[in-house]
Amino acid sequence: xxxxxxxxxxAWDAFVQEADPGSYLQLAAWARVKRPNGWVAxxxxxQAPGGPIGAQVLLRxxxxxxxxxxxxxxxxxxxxxxxxxxxxFTSGARxxxxxxxRISHLRIDPEIxxxxxHDPGGALRxxxxxxGWRSAPAIQPASTRLIDLRASLGAR
Length: 156
Known about the structure:
By secondary structure, the chain is of the alpha+beta class. It has four helices and six strands. The termini are far apart.
């Protein structure tokens, strides 16, 4: 299995833009937004059946603790979601993050709708379980609300 670290922001952003779906939370700009709060980004891509799969992982070392939290917001990302891509991603995460020192856990939340087109019949969630991932409460909102902010005619 081949894993490569992608330090170049432009190359990483091009990879995210080709993903289905990609997320702004996986772009290099999001890592720059999070940096003042103590988060440091590392990005990696694992070669998997159907194409590469990777994540921008944000690491944060709280206080004087000897380990970091790792979080891939709306990651991993890939252009071809396949159940057999998750084991190479998991191995790639262990390999790529091993160089970052001690990490208590890695939290992921791929932007994949349960039972949607990328998770027919829960196949992707089952592949995550088989690769060793455990379910956890969501961090990012599960849905979007649209609110019309135009003033009504009576408010003028």
